[in-house]
Amino acid sequence: MEFFTIKPCKTQAAYVVEPKKPLHLDLKALKVPFDITARTPVLMAMRIDGVDVSLYPSGKMLIQCDEPECIAKKVWGEVA
């Protein structure tokens, strides 16, 4: 079963990964085992296995790598 869609980003060398149904994440309170580089109510930026990832309250992610699916699965394993 697919929980998300992956599309190339139109403005950056990255991929946009979105859940099939929007989530409602509290990014200020969310605890994840990754290196968090920035955290606001509208964005959590982190590094996972050397890859930059931006997570939004809807569950949408911007992943800056060539194979975003494995990174997306790691993040959703923690937040969903």
Keywords:
80 residues; alpha+beta; 6-stranded antiparallel β-sheet; 15% helix
Task: Write structural notes for this entry.
With 80 residues, the chain is an alpha+beta fold. It is built from 1 helix and 6 strands. A 6-stranded antiparallel beta sheet has the order 1-2-6-5-4-3, with helices on one face. The protein is globular, with a radius of gyration of 11 Å.
Overall 3D shape: globular
Indicate how many domains the architecture comprises: 1
The strand order across the widest sheet is 1-2-6-5-4-3
Q: What gap, in angstroms, lies between the N and C termini?
A: 14 Å
Residue-averaged pLDDT: 89
Question: SSE layout and pairings?
Answer:
Blueprint: E1 4-8, E2 15-19, E3 35-40, E4 43-48, E5 51-55, E6 61-63, H1 68-79
Antiparallel strand pairs: 1-2, 2-6, 3-4, 4-5, 5-6
Structure summarized in a few sentences:
With 80 residues, this protein is an alpha+beta fold. It has one helix spanning 68-79, and strands at residues 4-8, 15-19, 35-40, 43-48, 51-55, 61-63.
